[in-house]
Amino acid sequence: MPAASAQPAATAPVSADLLATLEAERLLLFGGTDFWRAGGFLHGGFAWAPDGLAHDGPVFKVLAGAGTYQYRVGRTPIEAAQTLLSVTPGWIFRRDRFIAVVHGGIDLQDQWTLPVDPGNPLRGPHAGMRLGLETWWEPLQDVMVKSHATWSSTGHGWGAGAAAGYRMLQTWYGGLFVGPEVQAYGDATYHQLRAGLHGTALQYGPYQWSAGMGWVTDSDHRSGLYVRIGVLTKM
């Protein structure tokens, strides 16, 4: 049974993807969607850094999301809906071409099931703690490596992923990194594995786009395609 705290949107970045191109901007807005055959999620939020997002210093992140997923109890299909809100202050570390963002704070979640599943420990409202880490590294001029990890005390949900990319497109408005990605999400009773391809950091006007697509399999013996789309903008 999937846990709300294990959903992909819970790892939505600050994002290190955009930090490499920022100068004096202090506010970053982000949003996106993530879906596959057994569920889907929408998320949005912002990150605010009083000293500027491109410099070492404090950062304040707020993430909100909502989604649905399906699971079974015996032969009974269950439809579940969930919401989450996390408020996680943190710190930006920048060293030449390497950036890390560490944050942690309050994690609020709520979940409903139809029909009612009294055996679901995440049903109803919960308050806990969330920790997160995101990194972005450009070891070579046209090569990037990024990673993320998150953990919530609600349901002991966790998520982690990594991606590498090569700059395939370079134009006057930016470039596009393309390469492989792997991700994993889970909790004490459920896990999900993903492998696919991503396109990251496509700057067009004030927006930066990213997307990923690949194959997903989980501990409930389900598999299929996943698709995710994200967008960022700075102020």
Short description:
2% of the residues lie in helices and 70% in strands. The protein is mainly β.
Q: How would a crystallographer describe the biggest sheet?
A: 12 strands, antiparallel, barrel
Mean pLDDT: 86
Shape descriptor: globular
Distance between the termini: 40 Å
Low-confidence stretches: 1-6
Level of helix content?
under 10%
Oligomer: single chain
Which helices and strands occur, and which strands form pairs?
Elements: H1 16-19, E1 27-36, E2 39-48, E3 57-73, E4 76-95, E5 98-114, E6 126-140, E7 143-152, E8 157-171, E9 174-186, E10 191-204, E11 207-218, E12 223-234
Antiparallel strand pairs: 1-2, 1-12, 2-3, 3-4, 4-5, 5-6, 6-7, 7-8, 8-9, 9-10, 10-11, 11-12
Description:
- By secondary structure, the chain is mainly beta.
- It has 1 helix and 12 strands.
- It has one helix at 16-19; strands at residues 27-36, 39-48, 57-73, 76-95, 98-114, 126-140, 143-152, 157-171, 174-186, 191-204, 207-218, 223-234.
- Strands 1-2-3-4-5-6-7-8-9-10-11-12 form a 12-stranded antiparallel beta barrel.
- A hairpin with a 2-residue loop joins β8 (157-171) and β9.
- The longest helix has 4 residues, at 16-19.
- It is globular and about 55 Å long.
- 39% of the residues are buried.
Main attributes of the structure:
mainly beta; 235 residues; twelve-stranded antiparallel barrel; 1 helix; disordered N terminus; 12 strands
